[in-house]
Amino acid sequence: MEVESSGNSSVDTSTLAADGQATKDSSPGPVSPEDSMPGFLKLSRAEIHNKFIDLEWQQRNRLARGGTYSPENDSQWARLANDETARRNRYMNVDPFVQNRVPLRVPEGHSDYINASFIKLSNTISGTKREFIATQGPKEGMHSHVWRMMWHECADPVVIVMLTQTYESGREKCFQYFPFDMANPELPVNEEDEFEDGFIATLTLKSITEDEATSSTIREMELTTADGQTKKVWHMLFGGWPDYSIPEGEDINGLVRLVDFSASKNPAIPDSGRTAPRVVHCSAGVGRTGTFIALDWLLAEFREGRFDNIDEDKDPIADIVDDLRRQRMMMVQGEQQFFFLYDVMRQLWIDRQTGNEKRLKLDGASLSPEEKLRAEFEQEMKDNAERI
Question: Domain Tyrosine specific protein phosphatases spans what residues (predicted)?
Answer without folding.
Answer: 253-339
